[in-house]
Amino acid sequence: MPRLKVGELTFHVQQAGSGPDVVLIHGVTGDLSIWYLCRAMESLATRFRVTAFDLRGHGYTDVPKSAYTSADMAGDVLTLMDKVDAPSAHLVGHSFGGVVAMHAAVLAPDRIDSLILSDPYFPALRHLEQLSRWGHWQNFRQEAEDAGVTLSAEFWYDLGKFFDQVVHLDAEKMLKFRHAVGLPTMNRLMRLGKTTCGDDVKEEAGLTTEKIHAVHVPTLALYGEFSPFLATADYLSEHLSDCRSELVPLAQHRAPEENPVAFLAAVERFLVEVTTRSLAESSR
Amino acid sequence: MNNSPGESDILAQLAIILSDFGGREFSGEIGPDTMFFGDLGLASIDAIVLGETLEAHYARPLPFAGLMAELGTRAERDLSLGELAAYVNNHW
Questions:
Q1: Which of A65, A106, A140, B29 is the most exposed place for a label (fewest CB within 10 A)?
Q2: How many domains does chain B have?
Q3: CATH superfamily membership of A3-128+204-283
């Protein structure tokens, strides 16, 4: 099932396994290959029906000019679940994929069995985070500088400003940037830079603090040990009624890539725990 | 019994598919030593779509999830087309 029409757009979708439904949601500028590279697709498929897809504007999915908020993408997730006959599903979202997963739980709480949030920060909770205080910020900024792009400590969250810089690099700087990030990444950024994605993903889009607090599905806040967003992890476990946090050793923001073994182990532990709990409750 | 078409047929098929694969910049000859990412400028998502295309061509499921997971553990995330052809042949 590689291509599925979801609303007006055609989505690239991959599915494997059988059992309770799990939907995997990658982050902005990524694609569904992250779930193959960290072995989630192969491993989770032994117990679950796993559906991974490329978000709108990403990978092999269509690229609309606009409508990239978490509300738009959560709508895609719910429509995709309809298309694959999944009345409900466990959602695993990385980075902005976690925001999308949370938003889907707000829009359709009865359809979301659990949430695994891998290192998201939420636009409504942006005030909690200050990237300039993050221990790896200087290295991160230097890497971008070396590629010819300036990151601002004040506007760290503003992907729109970042995309704008990339799209408007002169020929010489573009070549330098391409050498630094590689052709596929540059192509991805150029494609997204021509859409409203960068501006849309920084909007709350209805995912307010009140709505976040009201999420009651079992939730795992899974953050890298050295994540820039640990304040968000603490906030979620304090404010959500059924949320615990767990750290992936040695990882920063990209635990599925930086420590895939520990990341996957935490995901599987949580999913088994939640599905076992759910079976026990339904047999009472 | 393994009734695979053989590594050389699979490699030839890969070359045909990759001769018209979206976004590819490589202009040299495609052979067993051609590196998927380094030479062809493709990304891991392209490898997944290439896998689908091969499955459709041979009308059989091929275990690309395992290959991608193995690729994720490599320091240099790249593989040669020869390796890819051998993998398909060995998992026929």
A1: B29
A2: 1
A3: Alpha/Beta hydrolase fold, catalytic domain (3.40.50.1820)
Report angle CA A198, A199, A201 to the nearest 5 degrees: 75
CA distance A265 to A267: 5
Q: For each successive 10 residues of chain A (284 residues), what is the average pLDDT?
A: 90 97 97 97 97 97 98 98 98 98 98 98 94 82 86 86 91 88 87 95 97 97 96 97 97 96 98 91 80
Give the residue numbers spanning the domain of B50.
7-22+30-90
**Strand ranges in chain A using DSSP code E only, listed in sequence order:** 3-6, 9-16, 21-25, 49-53, 89-94, 112-118, 219-224, 243-248
DSSP A64: -
pLDDT surpassing 70 at residue B23:
no
Asked if B43 lies within 8 A of A60 by C-beta distance, the reply is no
Count of residues making up chain A: 284
Which of B46, B65, B77 lies at the smallest CB-CB distance from A42? B65
**Which residue does chain B place closest to A42, by CA atoms?**
B65
DSSP state of A204: -
B36, B44, B45, B64, best to mutate vs chain A, most A CBs in 10 Å: B45
Residue B59 maps to a domain: yes
Question: Residue written as tokens 């709350």?
Answer: A204
Structure token digits, residue A81: 């679940």
Give domain status of residue B40, yes or no.
Answer: yes
Does B58 reside within a domain? yes
Using CA atoms, how far apart are residues A196 and A65, in angstroms rounded to an integer? 6
Give the full edge-to-edge strand order of the sheet including A9-16.
A3-6, A9-16, A49-53, A21-25, A89-94, A112-118, A219-224, A243-248
Q: CATH 3.40.50.1820 spans which residues of chain A?
A: 3-128+204-283
- Residue A112's nearest CA partner among A148, A81, A73 is A81
Cβ pair A257:B68 closer than 8 A:
no
Q: Which residue has the tokens 């030593």?
A: B33
Per the CB < 8 A criterion, the answer to whether B50 and B81 are in contact is no
Does the CB of A204 have a partner CB in chain B at under 8 Å?
no
